[in-house]
Amino acid sequence: MSNGPSFQFPTCLVDLNLTLNYAGRKYFSGEMTSVDVVYEKIHFRHDPKWCGRFAEHLGQGHVMICVACVIEMMESDTVASVRKSVALSGISVVLKTNPVALKELLLQDQRVCLHFTASLLGMLHGDQDPSTLERAIQVLVQLLVELQSEQHVQFVLDEINTQLCNQSSVGAFLPSFTLLGRLLDTVPGLPQSLASSHGPLLERLCSALLYPDEGLKASVFYVWLKLWGAGGSGPSLPSPLRERLCVLLLQNLAHACSPQLTINCLGFLKELLQFSDVVSMLMNSSCDLVLSGHDQQAPPSTSLDRCPLPLILKKLLLSGDEALQVASAQCIAAILVHSPRQYCPPFIQADVPEFLFERLSSSSVVLLWSVYSCLLLLAQDTLFFSNCHSVYGIESLVRSLKEALRLSNQDVQRQGLLLLTDILERQPVSVRLFPSAPAFVSVTGVLLKGVSSPCLHVATQAARAVAALLRVDHQSTPVQYHKLEKLLEALSDRCAELPLAASSRHRGSLKQAEPSGHVSRAEGFLLQALVCFQATCRLAEHCSSEPGLKENVFTAPSKQNQEPLQSLCRCLLRCCDLVCIPTVTRHSEHSPSAPVLQHFFSILSYQFSLLPVLMPPFAVKLASSGFFRFALEHKAVFCVGNRNPSLNAACCGFLQRLSVSLLAPVDPADSIHPQDNEQIEALLKATQYCLLILLHLALQHGDRLLLDCVVFSCVVTLLCSVQEHGETPPPPCVLRSALYLLSVTQDQSPDLDWAPLQGIIKALSSSPSVSLLYTHHPALLHFIFHYPELAAHFGLRILELWLSHCPKASLQSDTLSKKMEQRPEPDPDIIALLGLLEKSPSVILTLLDMVCSREPPLAPRAAQVLESFLQGGRDCEARLCSLLRPSLLEVLQRMSLESIPAVGALPLVLRILCLMQPSSCTDHDMDGIHFKLLYHVSNMAGKIKASNTECLLPAFSYLYCCLRLAPPHSTDRAVSMLLCNAGLMEQLQATLELPSSSPCHLASLLCCSHLLLSSLVTLQHTHSAQVHRSIRLNLDSMVHALVFRKRTTDSLSLAGTLRLLQAVLDVDLDSPLLCVAVSPRAGQRPLGDMDSRLYPLGCHRAQGLITALFSLLLQKQEFLLCVSVNCLGSLLGFLQRRSPSTGTRLRPSQHVVCQPWSRFLLYSLLNSGDSCLLHPATLTLLTLLLQYGSRMLLWEPDLCQVLEAVERRGLKDLGENTGQALTQLLVQLHCSVIHPPPTEENRLRAKTLMESLSLLPPNDNAPTSIFHVGELTLCLSDFTVKTLRHTGSQP
């Protein structure tokens, strides 16, 4: 007979110990004081050999026992029961303390030993008190155990059978059954012997179960329990006996009233349920037969509906005894485990699941475990769900789990969560478990606790339950998205804490290592967490397509803009980005798993459909993190040979969605071609094209899957093979990938020969537009212009696309303070293009053509690149001159022929001309192209409207720089040409009439016109050039602006005004080019002697001008210091020339430098730190004061302070301008007379310093001749201190 499967419970649970009684009554078993076991009346008749003295326990004395006395006492009816009990107690003590001696005494004669045993057996059927019977049974058991004789055991069994046959009352069988139960407990091999050789005794045991005494039946069932459960003896019984026994068991269990009988029946039933055939007998027993109580053999019922056992066990579930409830649940589980499909329906039809759910209110871990186990087995049958037991019990189960998760027994928690998972997974879609929000919130709270459990086994099972809960039909109305978010966050937090093994191996190696047990459990939780994430993605995708699930009709209007589904999707993306990706990649480095990767790639794929707006940056992050390599490597490891098709499909789907997202345009103005998603997805299915696109995307984000030279060669071969075989040209997106790969891998590959180059050109030409092939990458520029053939076909359009992509340049400040600040970082796109210009100068002409022929924003962008290139100080000025100047001249000639010049191109061209001024060769005269450019620019400036400041400013800047930078022998022709240009003079006149407090762009134009006019005045005076039209200059307005409006006037305007005043003062306010005018004052008197000498400046204007200059010097603005000092020098020179010395009276120039405010100015400048003290303007001011005989300047402390500052800094660190100014000061000191005179030490210090200056080598790093402030180009010579003529101090 074969045994069925056994239902085992975990060893960690407390075993259910049923209190099995040997009889219906308990017997006294207390110890008595040992005495000699001798019957004095008859002892003298006995042979002394049957008498022995035995040592008591712990050497407390000796006890004498006479075997013959004991036999006669036990058989005598006259001996008191108490005396017999005392004798038995003494024998029991000896059997415990000295069993060997007593055994030897009895075995002297086998017959006597058997007689001794028979006498004890005879007591079991006498009228003995319970204590004596208990002593007799105890001695018999001890004796048989010590004798270890099969003969004596069989003798006892035969005697018991004989007594049962001869006994008239079944009620007297109780001591015999008790003894038999004790023997089965203690004597080895007795169950087997009894089952095989004592059939009649077993029949009588069955018959005893018909007796109404429940105590007797409890003892009999105990005997059957021990007989059945010992060494497989029960299955060897005859089949009829077993069937009869099953019926009797069911009858007694159904009608049992006493706890002892019920418990023993359940214990015996549990033993029987270990065998499949017995379970079949029990479950097929006729309900009528069992409930009738008749012992009749009947064929097994074929109808499971009439099975009595489920009803019996259900009745026990209703009892108030927890032990019986546990036993009943364990029996149910033991039945169902054999064949759930066969045995579940009777229990379900008997409504057993309902009562099992009711028992879940208990806090007993044993009962909870047993009930969970039963319900788990019952839930495997569809009838469990069709009868709505799951709906009835789900609330009880959730409450039970809530309490179980507070217990310390983790096995019960796992079993309960497993039951919840099974119910959630098997529940039919048509019947909802959580129709209302409170029920759903309750189950999510339980699962949150489960996921947060410190035990990974429990947390893993909770994660499985979460995945099952995420079915659409399990969601309440409305959907509790915020609770789902909490579940995701709990899973993410737990994943972040997982103790996944760290790998010290190289990332590319995929060899698996044997994980520890804890790590293995962590990986199991990770897999279940990923299943949950994937289920959430699936749920979110479904809800987004169902308006009824997407929108919550119960949400208040004030909160409807929160979009809970959108929030859930963002939570998914956040968890994926912050937890899933790092955890899975870390796990895959150590021990990659196909199931983990399958769910991982599926989760990543879902993100592209859930949040398409956020996918472009997410896709870029994935690609730049090496996910192309990650996916392809694991695909190669796990999917080769058609292995793991699910992982292969998930991996391919992820790569496809990632590629489509990277290829899709982020912005409509982006240069990336807006391909249709369906076309791209179709191309990704073609092997070669798919590999090409994957290589492109991976390399674009820094993941080099192959060597550059290999990629380059493969792409060239592919494009050429398509042409050679006459195949259909690749689609534009494939060609774009091919062109990108060729561009970024060209540096590590050999140059292309003519044939493959022509094949590439032909393939690229098949695209309807170059924009479809364009990728914004510097390598593309270099690749196209590396080959002249490619540049001829695609160069111009590629440059246009590049410049269209560049961001607009920020406006530059035109103030000096902004100029002096650190410049922002240049545009990387412009830097890349500048590198191309250095390698391929011919591109410069292409850009210039774009400046002249393209519309904004291309033309300004091209001009910006050329300006940046010209400002960069490249070592290619001669080549630039030969390239740009002829082209610029041609452009200007073409524009001069137009009635209305191109408004957009002209200012750009003029700005480029201004930036080329540093390239002017000052050692050649202005013949040829230089003079022609000057001529055309001056003519254009005369034709431009006065309101067109955008063109006038670069034109004036160019003319001004040409005059300032031209060699002296060439300036006469230049100034003559400009002076005869009446239109230019009119433009200058109109510009000079602009207010000094004009807006920023007008202030730059005013400054430039002042600088241009100052150069014209100076050069006209130098060369005595003919003037055809004079320019009116209002001296009052200029002085008034310096005196009263310097705080509101731009620094550039002030500098231009000062420079013009300096030039006018240098020619003594007398120039045929200028008509210097002054405003007449009301009630003006005739000019005095000094005013007439200084006319048109006059004393009043001279005094105001001096005050303004001193005020500007006190402001210590870097840009105005030198200009102010230069103007002050020119003013003092003008005053000196107009007012010669007349006796002892001070000249106006000397009067100016001797005023007290000169001392205040000196004090302020000399005590503002070494940077101000050693500024060229400060040193030049000291030189002027000495030159014009100021009495405010003293050797000590003023000049000594200068010498000390120079000595502290060192001559080598002074700078060229400071050195020249210091040299002028020292020379002037040598020529001047100062009161009080210097000490000899100070004189030697000055002399030594002057000699040291003369020995310094010339500065090879001469500063550039021009600089730029916004769009204004300035000559540095106009803003540095000028060299003074050295004369002695004025008397």
UniProtKB/TrEMBL annotation:
Spans through the membrane: none
Cited PANTHER family: BCL2 INTERACTING MEDIATOR OF CELL DEATH, MEIOTIC DOUBLE-STRANDED BREAK FORMATION PROTEIN 1
Protein name (Swiss-Prot/TrEMBL): Meiosis inhibitor protein 1
